[in-house]
Structure formats: structure tokens, C-alpha cells
Amino acid sequence: MVKSKVVCGFLGLFVYMVLSELLFLDYLQKMFQSPKKKNIEISRRNYMYESYTDAPLTKGQKKEVIPLCPITSPLLRGPINLTFPSELTFAKVEQKYPQVELGGRYRPHDCQARHRTAIIIPHRDRELHLKFLLYYLHPFLQRQQLDYSIYVIHQAGNYTFNKARLMNAGVREAMQEREWECLFFHDVDLIPIDDRNNYVCGSNPTHVAIAINKFGYKLPYDAYFGGVTAFTPLQYSKINGFPNNYWGWGCEDDDIGLRVYLAKMRVLRPSLEVGRYNMIRHRHDKGNTVNRLRSKYLVKAPENWKRDGLNKDMYEVISRERLPLYTNITVNVGTPAGLHPPP
Ligand code: UD2
Ligand code: MN
């Protein structure tokens, strides 16, 4: 799989090289034009917030003043050793973390969190991985003193998996619940192994999983943008969200990485020292066959990205359950023929 990952990378890079030539020319042109007011056409819909306000106080409620959490949490430990106890169950994980509120929500009680992050996990038939991810991710986020929620966006049915479309749905559903200031998109099988890897957003989109055991704890290729990424809602809307039409395995993460450049932003990354993850070893999923059209779509990203993304609602919610460790949102993402294709 690493080989074909690199194929996407080279393709993405090729498209980026051609583009940056054009973008550079375009940039030069702009540079010598009279400086126009930059008016980014962003619809301030219900989720275009860079910051958030606390819920209004109810009548007579006294605002309890608790101090802001320290800029660097005193609870951090650095490198984490992973074990995967075979007897671990979801119930045991729930018992271990009673401080997590229903729906997988948590906020520190002794200080006011500086950051509010939604974790969005695309999912189907990976319950074992999900159990271990939650077992490590909840204490990891709590040591960072974040106000966070974990959303699992579960693809219903057994049509080919569509990761990016699930993540688009996850943004919309999470932002309707709260004004998150940071959105983390997280493979279910990636366990962060250094809690200094901050799950907060930066001035540009962030590629967070940059040192994975599977790739020798370094980038498989420069333009790599897979595994775990982070966007503010505004950054997500600047790239028009994610592509909806990558059915099956491959290249959708490279398409997203390309969109960041097409939207004239750049990619931030943590250091190789802290951006470390272990991927739980797994075989290829039956329902996620290699997408034979992936290269074709990737090359077309420059002309497609403004047409295909968050501006298309291509899912419907089947159920929403607040479970002890996460909010499970089961969605129908349909097929290339639509949400309700003829039988
Ligand atoms: C790489 C990328 C991943 C994605 C994929 C190509 C890394 C670390 N990750 O992952 O972001 O771009 O290539 O599509 O490079 N999933 C399910 N059920 C399924 C299939 C997928 O839940 O049946 C979810 C799950 O969150 C999983 C993610 O989709 O982690 C990516 O799928 P993968 O783990 O099979 O792909 P992998 O490891 O090659
Ligand atoms: Mn994987």
C-alpha cells in the first residue's frame, strides 16, 4: 500500500508543481496590481466561526470565574508506550474514564480550556481499532486540557467506503452542535504516541500525523497529507471542504492537501519528534476497494475543487447516538448514482 500511496504523492506533486508555476505567475501579476481589498467569498453560514462565545448565562446564574488553563498543560508526559490488552472492552474503557460526559465530551473543571476541538473519525467495521483509539485518545486530550468532543461518522450500508464524504458530513453535524474552533480529522487506526502533539489548530491547515511507524516515523513523500489533519472551520470552508467522489481507497487525502495550496494556504506540521503515531496493523478492508479512478480525480482537482465539496450536501443522517465515549452519527452517503439509487 505504501507504493500506491507514493503514486498519489507523485501525482499530487506533479499537479502542484504545474499549479505553483501558474499560481506564482498569478501571484506576481497580483503583486504588481493595485492592492485590492481581499474579499474571500465565504458564506458566514452557521459554522464559519474563528472563535466561540460561551453559552449565554441563564437568568440569575452567577458567572463562575475559573482561571484560564496554562498555555502549556502541566499534565503532559511526552512519549507514550502503547499496549493492547486483549481483555479490554468498551465497558472497561468507559469505567476507566468516568469524567467523559455522554457523547464523548470533556472539558477541564479546574481551569477554563483555551481550545475547543472536535475530533471527527470516519468509520465502518473498525470497532477493535476504535476501542483502542478511545482508550488512548481520551486521556491524551485531557492531559492537553482541551474542551473536546469525539464524533464517529459511521457509513451505513455496504457500498464502497467514502472517507472524505463522511468527513464532510462530520463537519456539518459537529458544527451544528457547537461552534468548534478546531476540527481534527482522524483515522481510526492511528494512535498518537506523544502528548506534546497539540490537538489545536494553527494559522493554516495542519498535517498532524507526520511520523507514522508504518513509514519509519517520517514522511513517505513531501506532499503527504494523510492520517490526521486539522482545519479551523474557516480554513475548511476556504478549500470548499473535501471531495465527495472518491469511492474506495486512495488519493482523497492528496486531493485535500492540494486544495490547501489551491486556496493559497500552506501546510503546517508539528516536529517529527512529537508528530508520532502507531498505526494498528490491518489488512485492506473488503468494503474499501482501491479506487481505480483516484489518479484521474486527483489530476482534475484544480478544476474540481470549487465545484465539489462542502457546497454539496451528499449525505443524510440515519441516527445520532450520544454514547459514553463518543457521539455516533450513522449516515447514508449513497452511491455515485445518488443517495437513493434505484435497486
Ligand atoms: C491511508 C491514509 C488515509 C486514507 C487512505 C486512502 C495514512 C496514515 N492514512 O490510510 O488517511 O487517505 O490511505 O484512502 O496514510 N475506514 C473505516 N472502515 C473501512 C475503511 C476505512 O473505518 O472499511 C476509515 C478508518 O478511519 C481508516 C481510514 O478510513 O483509518 C483510512 O482507511 P485505511 O486505514 O484502510 O487506509 P490506510 O491505512 O492505507
Ligand atoms: Mn490505516
- Helical content stands at 25-40%
How large is the radius of gyration?
20 Å
Report the order of strands and helices: HHEEHEHEEEEEHHEHHEE
CATH homology superfamily: Spore Coat Polysaccharide Biosynthesis Protein SpsA, Chain A
The end-to-end span amounts to 33 Å
Reported for the largest beta sheet, the result is:
8 strands, mixed
Tally of separate helices: 8
Structural class, by secondary structure, is: alpha/beta
Fraction in beta strands: 15-25%
CATH class: Alpha Beta
Task: Outline the low-pLDDT stretches.
Answer: 24-53
CATH topology: Spore Coat Polysaccharide Biosynthesis Protein SpsA, Chain A
CATH architectural label: Alpha-Beta Complex
Ligand identities: uridine-diphosphate-N-acetylgalactosamine, manganese (II) ion
Please give the domain count: 1
